[in-house]
């Protein structure tokens, strides 16, 4: 049986990626850095082991949004593609769920950094909400699968 493969890319098609293997976690981030990076009140991310991620077309531009984190985006159309916390162990790569070819493939499990949400944003989707980075997401038995309903 082959591993599940997730493919995605930017609006103009100049940059493409592929991720395989297990999906670590996925969720909505409401932090100010994500808001400013994509121009939206929240961003849904899916996290993969870095060793299971690769660029398949083009080279993205990188921006260090903090000394510990880098974000990638298409240098031509500006689509936000990835986030990587440089200190994570094991190393992970987060992809914007909306940049997946099949954005229904992964479902957010929670909302984090909701204390940064604008007052006019309300997510009443039944997912857990945390004002900060949330719990140890790998050990919380109450979080739904990022693969969504079967």
Query: Roughly how many Å apart are the termini?
Result: 18 Å
**SSE series:** EEEHEEEEEEEE
Main sheet properties? 8 strands, mixed
User: What does the average pLDDT come to?
Assistant: 88
Q: Which value, in Å, is the CA radius of gyration?
A: 15 Å
Structure, briefly:
The chain has one helix at residues 32-38; strands spanning 5-9, 16-20, 23-29, 43-49, 53-57, 61-66, 69-73, 80-85, 92-96, 110-112, 128-129. With 150 residues, the protein is mainly beta.
How would you describe what is shown here?
The protein is mainly β and 150 residues long. 5% of the residues lie in helices and 37% in strands. The protein has one helix spanning 32-38; strands spanning 5-9, 16-20, 23-29, 43-49, 53-57, 61-66, 69-73, 80-85, 92-96, 110-112, 128-129. The strands form 2 sheets. The chain has an 8-stranded mixed sheet. Strand 6 and strand 7 form a beta hairpin. The model has no long low-confidence stretch (mean pLDDT 88).
List key phrases describing it:
single chain; 150 residues; mainly beta; 8-stranded mixed beta sheet; 3-stranded antiparallel beta sheet; 1 helix; 11 strands; 37% strand
Detail the topology: elements first, then pairings:
Elements: E1 5-9, E2 16-20, E3 23-29, H1 32-38, E4 43-49, E5 53-57, E6 61-66, E7 69-73, E8 80-85, E9 92-96, E10 110-112, E11 128-129
Parallel strand pairs: 3-10, 10-11
Antiparallel strand pairs: 1-2, 2-5, 3-4, 4-9, 6-7, 7-8, 8-9
């Amino acid at each position: 049986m082959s591993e599940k493969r997730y493919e995605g890319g930017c609006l103009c098609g100049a940059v493409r990626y592929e991720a395989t293997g297990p999906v670590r976690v996925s969720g909505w981030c409401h932090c100010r850095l994500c808001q400013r990076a994509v121009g939206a009140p929240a961003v849904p991310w899916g996290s993969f082991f870095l060793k299971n991620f690769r660029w398949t077309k083009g080279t993205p531009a990188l921006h260090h949004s903090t000394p510990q984190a880098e974000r990638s985006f298409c240098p031509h159309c500006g689509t936000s593609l990835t986030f990587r916390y440089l200190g994570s162990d094991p190393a992970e790569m987060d992809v914007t769920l909306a940049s997946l070819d099949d954005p229904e493939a992964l479902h957010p499990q929670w909302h984090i950094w909701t204390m940064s949400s604008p007052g006019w944003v309300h997510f009443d989707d039944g997912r857990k909400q945390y004002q900060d980075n949330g719990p140890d997401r790998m050990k919380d038995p109450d979080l739904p699968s990022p693969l969504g309903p079967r």
